[in-house]
Specification:
The chain is an alpha/beta fold and about 190 residues long. The protein has one domain: 2-Layer Sandwich (Beta Polymerase, domain 2). Helices cover about 40% and strands about 15% of the residues. The protein has helices at about 5-15, 20-30, 40-50, 75-90, 105-110, 120-125, 155, 170-180, 180-185; strands spanning about 35-40, 65, 95-100, 135-140, 145, 160, 190. The strands form 2 sheets. It has a 5-stranded mixed β-sheet. The radius of gyration is 16 Å and the shape is globular. About 30% of the residues are buried.
Length: about 190
Amino acid sequence: MDREVSLEQRLGMLVAASPWFMNALEAVQALALPDWCIGAGAVRNLVWDALHEKASPSPLSDVDVAYFDTSDLSTQRDHELQSRLTDRCPGVPWEVTNQAGVHLWFESCFGHAVDPLASLADAVASWPEFATSVGISLNRDASIRVIAPWSLDDLFGMVVRRNPARVSMATYRERVAQKRYAERWPNVRVVPC
């Protein structure tokens, strides 16, 4: 069996075995967004906690919900969707972002302009580290969909490596210092830049 398929299946099994992750996926699916996923840190924590055999999930600063819809780029819509998720699952630190509109605010937050993204997969491919450039959603038949434009090798290899698509070296260094990966998951290897 192809190694990549095996990692995708393994990720699917971890997601399916996690009641909180499945609950979160079902909550987002109920929003009926055109193309969406839960990604980044939520996926990383799920996998790295499992690989470190942690008994309970590591706390998340947020649960990133990414979607792609060019019909409404307003941040107000993101806030409304986030409120709906909070009503359905209180206590979950939701963060909802329409990836089709990221180029409208990216420069004011990160100091440099970026081109508009073409799709949800394009967005996931631009996230800060290759290990967190992964999204999970539910298909209509409730099967798990994995979006992993850069593969799942770094995620399952527990490697933190900068994705140069949109993240500067300075921002990457700040993220590594802030996230304290090696403290939280001792088997993680951080690739310096």
